[in-house]
Amino acid sequence: MKDAYKTQYVVGQDNIRCWGMDIHRLVFCFAAIFTLLFITVTLSSPEPTKKVFEGSKSWSIIHGDALFIVSGNFFVLFTLCIALSPLGRIRLGGKEARPDFSILSWFSMLFAAGMGIGLMFWSVAEPVGYYTNWYGTPLGVTEKTPEAAKVALGATMFHWGLHPWAIYAAVGVSLAFFHYNKGLPLTIRSGFYPLIKDYCWGWFGHLVDIIAVLATIFGLATSLGFGAMQAASGLEFLFGIDSGIETQILVIAGVTAVAVISVARGLDGGVKILSNINMCLAAALLAFVFIAGPTSVILTSIASTALSYAENIIPFSNWIAREDTKFFQGWTVFYWAWWISWSPFVGMFIARISKGRTVREFITAVLVVPTFVTLAWMSTFGGTALEQIQSGTGALVDGISDVSLAMFQMLQNMPFAEMASFLTIVLVLVFFVTSSDSGSLVVDSITAGGKLDAPAPQRIFWATMEGVIAAALLIGGGNDALGALQAASITIGLPFTVVLIALCLGLYRGLRHEWEFVQGITAR
Q1: 3-class DSSP assignment, residue 60
Q2: How far apart are CA 1 and CA 519, in angstroms?
Q3: Residue 103 near residue 290 (C-beta atoms within 8 A)
Q4: Spatial distance between the Cα atoms of 370 and 407, rounded to a whole number of angstroms
Q5: Which of 506, 494, 452, 497 is nearest to 200 (CA)?
Q6: Using an 8 Å Cβ cutoff, are 458 and 448 in contact?
Q7: How many helices (H) and strands (E) does the chain have?
């Protein structure tokens, strides 16, 4: 039996070599031009630009809510079916391939790139926001009631559990399979080869890869900018250091400098080491809050969060005749759009580090392990914050005043608060470094035509650009500019949803053909 998915296309054949770089002549140039154009327009008119993109984001969320929710449910069911079917036995890289990284390092890298910083930012603010009706309550429950506390944690878990990781898994396993098993470039376009064959190397493939680069750059720069605000707020809260623009720029400069060093050292010498440090620091902070906080309440919270998640996953996944429209569109649909726009970055990075894993092992690890870690994390931090509110302790009793301060306000009511807050700041910064350097590796791969061994100056260029974009937007437009960038990322999520659904169809065809191909060879 002939392997019909072999192509004459050679990785890097459309590249040009200049200034010590090896770049895809169209993807790199157009991605760079669109990025510079967006930044120029935003800096020249931050408020009007934000208004335009906020309008497009609102339109996408209001008119695309059903598509987002249906597709999110589809990705969960699709990945689970692939993992449980015989196709799950296919090994990424072939039968003889073996993993490049240990289980611990592999998990640390995929988790740090996927959601690490988000858990730091929202693990307190989100359940508190739901409980106090900061912007709608899940399923319309009455705020500040025992039922509200239970549903708030369940809704938080829903937003950070199986659904987002299923999106990442679908993208990741597709890219890993077509790259390691079929020898195609490690870019988004390769997932469409079973559907359109060599046409994926033409204008359609260029467009998909350019959108993936823009979504990644915009998402990373947004996170870096907002993260700088959180770190600066923490420094002011802890040490009295002014949290103004100067401190935020210094934070971005420091994170970017470390990210540049890390990305220059590559996966083994940079990203892997920092990811392992990340997980150790996160485990230390989690253990501290669990022991120093209301341990019995946290244990109860873990059980009640899991139960609420299981009980309400179907109501939360429903899109028909929702009465909690404010919460549904303002939180759930927003998150789904964000995860989808974030998926090229996380999915491709996970694919890059997953050679040698079986499809079943890949999907199981990407879906199940992070979900359990998220359950423990959200229940510990969110449960502690809700207990403080219910007992009338601390600043969170009055609700969310500043999202970037929520974590520090919770820690303030615990022993060794200054030590824990300092550890939190360090963890936030290290998470940002790992997001930046892993994102730079992804953007570098796409703009290098799928090459994994592109020159180091390219990785350094993109790592530097992320910091420069975030700093420029903070200086030139502050929250308005960052808001415009985030709104642009969310807007990209709507058309990219259709792209990911087609990607799943291509993956299924590719895996089924691979299974039949291998079975045919075995039968001879």
Answers
A1: helix
A2: 10
A3: no
A4: 21
A5: 506
A6: yes
A7: 20, 2
> CA-CA distance, 218 to 235, in Å (whole number)?
26
Mean pLDDT of the 466-488 span: 78
Enumerate the β-bridge partners of residue 24: 15
User: How many residues in the chain?
Assistant: 524
Residue ranges per domain, the chain? 15-116+154-313+323-393+418-523
Q: What is the C-alpha to C-alpha distance for residues 474 and 486, in angstroms, rounded to an integer?
A: 13
Could you report the per-residue pLDDT of 164-199, keeping only the tens digit for each? 999 999 999 999 999 999 889 999 999 999 999 889
358 DSSP β-pair partners: 91
Question: What's the rounded Cα separation, in Å, for the pair 489 and 387?
Answer: 35
Of the candidates 220, 459, 503, 518, the residue with the CA atom closest to the CA atom of residue 351:
503
pTM over 0.85: yes
Give the number of C-alpha atoms closer than 13 A to the C-alpha of residue 186, restricted to the C-beta side: 25
Does the CA dihedral 140-143-149-152 come out positive or negative?
A: positive
First to last CA, the chain: 10
Contact 484, 477 (CB under 8 A): yes
Tell me, what amino acid is at 132? T
CA dist., res. 504 & res. 370, Å (int): 22
Strands (E), 223-337: none
Tokens encoding 16: 């040009």
The pLDDT value recorded for residue 150 is 94
DSSP tag of 142: P
> What tokens were used for 272?
């892997």
